[in-house]
Amino acid sequence: MDMKEAMHTRHTVRKYTDQVIPAEIVTLMTQRIDENNRKYHLNIKLVTDDSSAFGAVVKLILAKGVKNYLVLAGPDNKDLDEKLGYCSADLMLYAQTLGLNTWYVGGTYNRKSVSKKAGEGRVIGVVAIGYGATQGVPHKSKKPSKVSSYEGAMPDWFKNGVEGALLAPTALNKQAFYIIGKGNKVKITCDNGVFSGVDLGLIKYHFELGAGRENFEWVIDF
Description:
single chain, 2 domains, four-stranded antiparallel sheet, four-stranded mixed sheet, 8 helices, globular
C-alpha cells in the first residue's frame, strides 16, 4: 500500500485490540517521526504500552484499548499548529501503510499526563495508534463544490487535490475550509476556531498528496 492508497483507506478508529506493535514497525515509525522532527523542528514522540493518554471516562466511552500514541508537540510559535497538523497527516498515512490504524485527538486526551511524556514544547494533541478492532468507516463529507472553486477549466490535479482534502480528518468533522485555484496557484483558508491551524496542516498535506506537489504552488493571495 502506498501513501495515496492509505489516504483512501485510512479512517478514524477509536477501539483497539491488545495486539502489540512489533519492534520492527516501531522502528519504522520512529524513523519517520525523526525525519519529520528534523525537517520541521518539532518534538513528536511515539509512546508505546501506556494507557495514560486518556482519562477513565473517555477510555470507557471512546478510547477503548488505546495503549500507543503519538504526542504532538514542538517549540511554541505561530506556525506550530499547522506544522503538527501537516506532520500528523504524514504519520497517520504512513502508519496505515504499515497495517496500523489511527485516531487524531485534539481535545479529549489527558493533558497533564501527555505533557509529561512530551518533555519539551507545547502539546496540541495526540494520535492514537495500533491495531484497530475494526478498520473504521468513511466520515461524512461535503461536496467538492462546497469547499472549492477554480477559475476557468478545472484541471484533474486540482480535482484530485480537493478529493484528497476531503479525506483529511478535521476537528468535529466540520471541514471548515475553502480552496481556490487559479492557473497553478492555490489558496486555502480554514475557519474552525482554535483548531484552524491544525486543520490547515492536515488539509494541506492531503491536498498535496492528491494533487501532486509538482503541479501547483501555495499562495497567500492572488
